[in-house]
Write a structure and sequence with these properties.
This protein is an all-alpha fold and 205 residues long. The protein is 74% helix and 3% strand. A two-stranded antiparallel ribbon has the order 1-2. 13% of the residues are buried.
Length: 205
């Protein structure tokens, strides 16, 4: 029975399950209430923060319960993987929240200068933030990126060929934004006869 209580895999599994349930059913409701309160009080940064946390409440719950396993009344010998698991969840949560805050800052700046922000820049900001998170995570756990990047380089060529049309649309959208040829709200008329107002510019249209 003692071995059962001190089994690191069992403890972490139970903590993860309890954390996910706690995050989904309790923290999510709490964060949404805090978000709504911040919104009513016009606290923009708090609104973005709590809205982001409500979307990853299950991860936050997992982080809380995994950290609580370090304070058990009996001694448990955790392996190296335990520390890496906690690091990965922390980096994941921080990266996601940081990405949402950067998107909010971009939206605020764009709306103050030229009106509506575009979804394509949202995607780019999030991708760059996630890449930064991956690099930080790799450095923290001592993971060598060179072999992975080499493998991704070979696999990336195949993916690029498979997603040729999508990538063409993506770079076309970037060109339009960089050249400032169009922006949301502009009225356009195509050679096909279609006409209307630009609503958004994203990675597909």
């Amino acid at each position: 029975m003692k071995n059962l209580y001190t089994n690191q895999y069992l403890i972490v599994t139970l903590a993860s399950i309890l954390g996910l349930l706690f995050g989904h059913y309790i923290l999510r409701i709490l964060f949404k209430k805090l978000r709504d309160t911040s919104k009513r009080k016009h606290l923009k940064y708090s609104t973005v923060l709590f809205n982001s946390l409500s979307r990853i409440s299950f991860i936050v719950g997992g982080i809380i319960f995994l950290n609580l396993t370090s304070f058990l009344p009996f001694e448990v010998s955790y392996g190296e993987w335990y520390g890496k698991l906690k690091i990965s969840l922390n980096v994941l949560a921080i990266t996601f929240v940081l990405g949402e805050i950067l998107v909010f800052l971009y939206d605020s700046y764009t709306k103050s200068k030229s009106g509506k922000a575009t979804s394509l820049y949202h995607i780019i900001i999030r991708i760059l933030t996630y890449i930064g998170g991956i690099i930080v995570f790799s450095n923290l756990i001592g993971l060598e990126l060179a072999p992975i990047l080499t493998a991704l380089g070979v696999g990336g060529l195949a993916v690029a060929l498979a997603l040729q049309d999508t990538l063409t649309n993506l770079f076309a959208g970037l060109h339009i934004l960089a050249a400032r040829q169009l922006k949301p709200g502009d009225y356009i008329k195509l050679e096909s006869g279609d006409e209307g107002y630009v609503i958004d510019i994203n990675w597909r249209t």
